[in-house]
Amino acid sequence: MKYVFGPVSSKRLGQSLGVDLLPPKSCTWNCIYCQLGKTRKFVTERQEFFPREEILEEIREALKVNKSLDWITFVGSGETMLYKGIGWLIAEVKKLTNTPVAVITNGSLLYQTEVRQELLHADAVLPSLNAGSEALHEQICQPASGLTFQQHIDGLAAFRHEYKGCLWIEVMLLGGINDTDEALQDLAQVLKKLNPDMVHLVLPTRPAPEQEIRLPSDERIEQAIAILSKVSVVINPLKGNMDLRNAPDLLEAITAIISRHPVQQRELHKAVADCFSGDSEKANDVMQGFFETGRFRLVQHNGEPYWVMQQGENSGFNR
Ligand code: SF4
Question: What structural domains and CATH numbers belong to the chain?
Fold first, then answer.
């Protein structure tokens, strides 16, 4: 499949079918923690990058084989709201299924009325907010020129005002960067004004190819929860895992996921073993075969091996 991947399971969204609407990497930001690598060229103009009917057809096909989904999630190789026509896709998906639709976005384009309009029928929207000050926002997110911190906050506030679904703000907590008391207090002040339904604290558990990013200590995570909980419900960070049991082609399914973010070898092994009734040795053989295709390579992050795409193999499929 070109656009649909997973399901991937996570504490936050349960069993979630991913839909990626973008050519890699298309983004308005260049976050220092980005798993997709550096943003070589910013994209700020919205476009229908791929025909919407083609994407909808893939979702329709995926829904036939994945019967027990918790969410359909628009997320992917950059800033999701750069896809012009996402509102149409959300509406069409909701005609196909009762499964709720979530959109993961950095939120940088929410200052545009048409972007907010396109999101109104999503069941949950998860925009990013990693800092409560302009300096830290610039340091972490490195937005394209013309996209300011104030614009970001104003866009989020306008969206909160208009949107009736679940607004779950994602905060990426980075060791030594935005986990100080001062940074967390600034963030809490902004969050208080935005009044999200929840704050999802997330951690840099996967490697960022361009920069060594540190996990915050347990003490700092607890302090972040304590400070942010004063202004919102905070969801504790926890890693997700994959369910590949319904994948028609295991190698292609794994490629589709790894081309979007690195996957811990342990997690991948468990997901592959689950496809063979928990047979660990069979999973080793299968993974060895996949590795020998030359599509993947191993990197170390926080003492754990991760599978990432081989350079020049951004994706296992042609777009
Ligand atoms: S917004 Fe997402 S895709 Fe864009 S640079 Fe940041 S982490 Fe990467």
Answer: 4-239 (3.20.20.70), 250-309 (1.10.10)
